[in-house]
């Protein structure tokens, strides 16, 4: 490993005045990462790449998009047909949003499994939850921009939820719309905010990484690093692993992009927005479906709205709701079972959210909603007290290297 003084005279000159080179060396090259990180630790860097891809494709798309109710739909059609590689840009951006959510949901479930939200990483976790909320707001407003039927009706249904707030609800909705229905002022402000929020996300990601590098990464064993033998430098070990992961991700992305670009889309959004014709079945994008099911599981509008927001806000409390002293599920045999049940539960919510709000889908949605809150508010605190975890290894190095860890120790 080189020290700052071993660079060229030019880089030393720059670094002495603005230490960006030593900063990059410290955080990207020498950063001591646990030696046992598995492939689930690839998803943070992948999320960063997905964010950059969304920003780059979005900026170029905005050059040919028109945020006006009478032109938005046609401007998107023109991008698809007449703008050079416009179809590629638009499909990359639309499918990129789905890829981003797949990556971030895996990233969150990794954290839930290995207890990465536990002390001393609570603020790192909170920043993640804030990123998730910002991503949801950004995606919701982006979906309105093509001004198709689902754009218009999705925006109408979701913004109307605020009318459930007692006394001030109606005024809030009028304020959000900038008028008395979803119309041109709404489209305009959504475009403006859809352009702005990703940069706010970048800012929160920087804080997320600053928090990460304060105590270092958690790892599959969930135990703290103790000696030099427990860690390896980020470069070349994890730069090469992240690069390999990126290759796999781009291949996965390309399959959708080139062979099924409308897989995640809704056919109704190829019909221009018409305030006089309500689609038979208004559904949000797939990544909102579990929350949509929670919203619809309560007959009262206000109750549904509160419960939907509570489903995210409970995540802020997670570091304290999970009372176990052991981080990783690897050593928590009972937690492992409940973790699996939670995954099934969220898939069930997703399914229920995609069905018309009637019959068995509603009942399944209600049961799954109840289980979701039961998991976080009751089972997790109890598990920490009653579960008997398996013994933890001595150190990361001893678990990974066995006897070799002790050699020359
Ligand atoms: C734009 C979205 C995001 C980006 C770019 C991002 C980036 C990263 C990166 C690069 C890492 C280190 C590598 C890794 O551990 O995989 C990381 C770690 C982490 N992230 Fe995120 N993240 C994002 C969203 C989230 C969200 C939504 C949450 C939770 C709600 C979250 C929670 C965490 C936690 C707890 C860690 C520490 C993991 C550990 O050390 O075990 N992140 N993030």
Automatic annotation (TrEMBL):
It is found in: Membrane. It comes from the Bacteria. Heme b b562 binds at residues 93, 194. Heme b b566 binds at residues 107, 208. The keyword Ribosomal protein does not apply. Residues 224-394 form the Cytochrome b/b6 C-terminal region profile domain. Residues 10-221 form the Cytochrome b/b6 N-terminal region profile domain. Signal peptide: none annotated. It is a multi-pass membrane protein. A ubiquinone binds at residue 213. Keywords: Electron transport, Heme, Iron, Membrane, Metal-binding, Plasmid, Respiratory chain, Transmembrane, Transmembrane helix, Transport. InterPro entries: Cyt_b/b6_C, Cyt_b/b6_C_sf, Cyt_b/b6_N, Cytb/b6-like_sf, Cytochrome_b, Cytochrome_b_C_euk/bac, Cytochrome_b_N_euk/bac, Di-haem_cyt_TM. One of its GO terms (cellular component) is respiratory chain complex III. Binds 2 heme groups non-covalently. The chain crosses the membrane at residues 39-67, 88-108, 123-145, 157-178, 190-212, 243-264, 302-321, 333-354, 360-386. The main subunits of complex b-c1 are: cytochrome b, cytochrome c1 and the Rieske protein. CDD domains: cytochrome_b_C (cd00290), Cytochrome_b_N (cd00284). GO terms for biological process: respiratory electron transport chain. This is Cytochrome b.
């Amino acid at each position: 490993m080189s020290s700052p003084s071993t660079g060229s005279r030019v880089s030393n000159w720059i670094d002495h005045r603005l230490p960006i080179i030593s900063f990059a060396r410290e955080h990207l090259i020498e950063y001591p990462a646990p030696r046992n990180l598995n492939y689930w630790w690839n998803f943070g860097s992948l999320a960063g790449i997905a964010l950059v891809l969304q920003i780059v494709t979005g900026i170029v798309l905005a050059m040919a998009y028109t945020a006006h109710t009478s032109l938005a739909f046609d401007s998107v059609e023109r991008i698809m047909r007449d703008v050079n590689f416009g179809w590629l840009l638009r499909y990359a951006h639309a499918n990129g949003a789905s890829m981003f959510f797949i990556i971030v949901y895996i990233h969150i479930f990794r954290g839930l499994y290995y207890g990465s939200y536990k002390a001393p990483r609570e603020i790192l976790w909170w920043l993640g939850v804030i990123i998730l909320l910002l991503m949801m707001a950004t995606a919701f407003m982006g979906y309105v921009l093509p001004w198709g039927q689902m754009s218009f009706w999705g925006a109408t249904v979701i913004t109307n939820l605020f009318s459930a707030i007692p006394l001030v609800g109606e005024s809030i909705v009028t304020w959000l719309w900038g008028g008395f229905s979803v119309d041109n002022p709404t489209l305009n402000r959504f475009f403006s905010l859809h352009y702005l929020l990703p940069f706010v996300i970048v800012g929160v990601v920087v804080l997320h990484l600053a928090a990460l590098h304060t105590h270092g990464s958690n790892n599959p064993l969930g135990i703290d690093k103790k000696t030099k033998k427990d860690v390896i430098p980020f470069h070349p070990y994890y730069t090469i692993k992240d690069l390999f992961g990126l290759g796999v991700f781009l291949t996965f992305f390309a399959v959708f992009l080139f062979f099924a670009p409308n897989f995640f889309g809704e056919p109704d959004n190829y019909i221009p927005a018409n305030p006089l014709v309500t689609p038979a079945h208004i559904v949000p994008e797939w990544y909102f479906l579990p929350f949509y099911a929670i919203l619809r599981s309560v007959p009262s509008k206000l109750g549904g709205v509160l419960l939907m927001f509570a489903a995210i806000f409970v995540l802020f409390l997670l570091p304290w709701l999970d009372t176990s002293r052991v981080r990783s599920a690897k050593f928590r045999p009972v937690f492992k079972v409940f973790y699996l049940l939670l995954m099934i539960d969220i898939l069930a919510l997703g399914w229920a959210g995609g069905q018309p709000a009637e019959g068995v889908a509603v009942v399944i949605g209600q049961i799954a909603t109840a289980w979701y809150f039961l998991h976080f508010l009751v089972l997790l605190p109890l598990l920490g007290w009653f579960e008997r975890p398996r013994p933890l290894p001595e150190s990361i190095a001893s678990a990974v290297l066995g006897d070799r860890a002790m050699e020359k120790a």
